[in-house]
Specification:
Layout: H1 2-51, E1 56-60, E2 64-66, E3 71-76, E4 79-83, E5 88-92, E6 95-100, E7 106-111, E8 115-118, E9 125-128, E10 131-137, E11 145-157, E12 166-180, E13 183-195, E14 208-216, E15 233-243, E16 249-258, E17 264-273, H2 275-285, H3 290-301, E18 308-314, E19 317-320, E20 323-327
Antiparallel strand pairs: 1-4, 2-3, 3-6, 4-5, 5-8, 6-7, 7-10, 8-9, 9-11, 10-11, 11-12, 12-13, 13-14, 14-15, 15-16, 16-17, 17-18, 18-19, 19-20
Helix pairs in contact: 2-3
């Protein structure tokens, strides 16, 4: 009997100290989380202070670290950045980020619209979207991976009035970046990109789907003051454009380089898919050149349904075979 009571007593003590250990661990974890949260908030303030000045303004309204107990991230009621000298500006509504406490280098972020974007040489734009999300694996000096996705994006001109004129829209727009050794992989994809009727070149102008996959040589070394594309080269692995709902489209591949003056040189291959449908669209766009387009389409059709043509760029001058298409200005 005494042995049974002693056993229950020992068990009760072990359970008591086990519960105390759990409580202390929870208190220590909670203290550590809130310490990390204060550190994150201080880092946000320090970063914003460094950005402000010399004609630049940046703000994260009511910045807070949230996500307890298993996540931690920055929440802002609204965000803003302006660079008067560069003519760049961005405003948007709530910003939310989060990372798991056991993997703080992997972060997710969301941005609420609408937003306002200013870039040099263009009218300010109003941006509207259903969702805008980003993900990254943080590393120095560049993230190991960065992805941005927006859905139901609308780009409008920022003009006086109750409703800004719609410029273009896209069902999905994505951008991806990752270092590959010293090189940098860049990719973008869009679906159902459509010009608004007031800005489309013709009535019934179709929507387009597209994909760009480019590798910039030694691009992972470009950051900060060294972010200059002049004197650089890369490989355009794929640049594809297709008419939505059809098989018609074009794909371009090949090496590209930019000289120290900003002029592009490239030896590319242009592959056409369903060239007859492309010719029909070109005739609708340029009826005054319908005869020339028809003759060219007939010659291309003799090469098959997916002919490949040489597309060359020499110091910015673009030529397709023996025809000069135009000039790309220095970048």
């Amino acid at each position: 009997m005494t042995s049974s009571r002693q056993s229950r007593t020992n068990y009760g003590r072990r359970f008591f100290w086990f519960a105390v250990a759990i409580a202390l661990a929870c208190l220590a974890y909670t203290g550590g989380w809130f310490y990390a949260a204060r550190f994150v908030e201080d880092e946000v303030k320090t970063t914003l202070a460094a950005l402000n000045g010399n004609g630049r303004r940046a703000n994260c309204e009511e910045a807070q670290a949230r996500g307890y107990p298993f996540r931690i991230g920055v929440f802002c009621r609204s965000v803003m950045y302006e660079d008067a000298a560069g003519g760049v500006g961005l405003r948007a509504r709530a910003f939310r980020s989060a990372a798991q406490v056991y993997a703080p280098h992997r972060a997710l972020a969301e941005l609420d619209g609408p937003g306002r974007l200013e870039v040099p040489g263009l009218t300010a734009l109003d941006l509207h979207w259903a969702s805008m999300r980003a993900s990254t694996r943080l590393a120095m000096p560049l993230p190991d991976l960065f992805s941005l996705e927006s859905r139901e994006l609308e780009v409008r001109l920022d003009e006086p009035g109750d409703v800004s004129p719609l410029l273009w829209s896209a069902e999905v727009l994505e951008f991806h970046m990752r270092p590959a050794g010293d090189d940098l992989d860049l990719a973008s994809r869009f679906t159902r990109l459509r010009l608004a009727p007031g800005f489309a070149p013709m009535e019934g102008f179709p929507a387009f789907n597209g994909l760009v996959d480019f590798q910039l040589a030694e691009g992972a070394l470009l950051h900060g003051a060294r972010a200059d594309l002049r004197g650089r080269s890369g490989m355009l692995r794929t640049a594809a454009l297709s008419i939505d709902g059809t098989d018609a489209g074009a794909t371009i591949r090949g090496p590209v380089s930019i000289d120290t003056a900003g002029l592009i040189d490239a030896d590319l291959e242009l592959t056409l898919r369903d060239p007859a449908a492309i010719a029909d669209l070109l005739v609708a766009l340029f009826p005054e050149a319908s005869r020339e387009i028809a003759l060219s389409a007939a010659g291309i059709a003799a090469m098959g349904n997916e002919p490949t043509l040489p597309l060359r760029i020499r110091r910015g001058e673009v030529s397709l075979g023996i025809f000069t298409l135009g000039v790309i200005p220095p970048i």
